[in-house]
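Supplementary Note 3. Input sequence used for the single-chain structure prediction.
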Amino acid sequence: MSGFYRKSVNNSDKKLSGESAKELNKKIPNGYLETIEKGISAVRTFRSGFSFGDGSREEQIERLKKEIEGADAIVIGAGAGLSTAAGFTYSGERFKKYFGDFAERFGIQDMYSGGFYPFPDEETRWAWWARHIYYNRYIDAPKPIYRQLLELVRDKDYFVITTNVDHQFQRAGFDKKRLFYTQGDYGLFQSVNPVIQKTYDNEEWVMKAMEAQGFGKDADGVWQVPEDGQLAMRIPSSLIPRCPDDGSDVTMNLRADDSFVEDEGWHRASAAYSDFLRRREGLRVLYLEIGVGANTPVIIKYPFWAMTLENPKATYACVNYNEAFCPRQIEKQSVCIDGDAGEIFA
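The predicted structure, written as discrete structure tokens, is reproduced below.
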């Protein structure tokens, strides 16, 4: 049994059964479900068409600046577009640099599709995932957009809800008690055994697996492809990760179906989000949506629309590349800016 990630995120040595964990979590607010229900119920009211905002781009940017400065509270909703703007691209040169051997051997075209590839054995599959996790979780974003965003809200009463799983908000310095990663974290494993409702930190395992493939650390301590480009595409069988509690197989803690483990840390963050929203009702709240696409609008976009409509003091701001719009019902309360978020924040 691999012992490289025995640290449990819920910081408890007590092994909770699936049922007892679920019963415990029923006793605290679930901001995730509450906000989704709000979005689903309210989206039926947005049937009068959409708007790209009121005013020129320059006027919208100036208004966003003023809304950030004057807000009593800011709720940041971040999607995949924010990490893409930060340089976490899944294809192109970045993919070729770190996964060129996998592309040549298996014909894989990008990191996303590679996650679903039927690799010939577990040693190869976990070699892939070690690289995927490391370069999308354990290094800083290539561009400073997360730090730019933090500078804009550092002194404000803020909370972040995100569907991203790359941990970049926390790496940039955002208060971890004000973060809710709804869809999981690349830095966590979960057991395939549904009885075990816990997650496990995988950092130590990832570092061992990167070293086993032949990556070398640079002066900044970042794993890089060696000069000769020669890498192993398999890890030793002894490094295949196993659950430290029962030796079962593990998988990524990413929401793909109902097997996703919502551990104690997840439920604490969900409850904190619920509490934050409840305590700021009726205040001048800025709902700042960044890079949220059409894949999961019910988690961030629709609820933000609904909460803006309910509160005449609220403002909805959408910063997105080619997808900045709002319902006409909240046009006067909205700021829509089409463009690169990094350039806009700068």
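The longest helix spans residues 122-137. Residues 46 and 329 are 7 Å apart (CA to CA).
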